[in-house]
Fold:
Amino acid sequence: MDTIVELQKRMTLVHEVDVKTSPDKIWDFLLHIDKNYKAWHPSDHILFKWTKGEALQTGSTFYAEQYMLGEKIKYKGKIAESIPGKKITMKFAFPLSLITDKIEMIIEGDGSHARFRHITYLRFKLLSRTIFKNRNIKMIYDMDTHVKTEGENMKRLLEKGE
Structure:
């Protein structure tokens, strides 16, 4: 029973995409996310801006808007960890923190090939079920599809040099 309860509390979504570009170009894309946000996911992303600190610096904060489940959501977060050229960990403020513990973006590779890994750590508490009116399965599917699309779009943008 304890195993089932734990599975209900946490879930991890992992997406990887191989990109024919250097890891530095992926880092640069993310470093300028305020300018690249809409192109990264044109149908869902609305706005991303840094609210305190420098882009991708540990402790910097941000504000973003996007569509989720067909609704416009606004959220805030901070960079919990930044290893330049390799890893970014983002944590979110309430209420998104109820369902998304953190996301990690990991860049691996060298030369002209890189792998971008996006890991979403989800947690579900009773309150998150209330806020999203028991739409958790749809929400998980939408989040999974959203991140997959981001990876495909990043690959397209960076490989074509757009």
Summary: Confidence is low (pLDDT under 50) at residues 1-7. The first helix runs from residue 2 to 9.
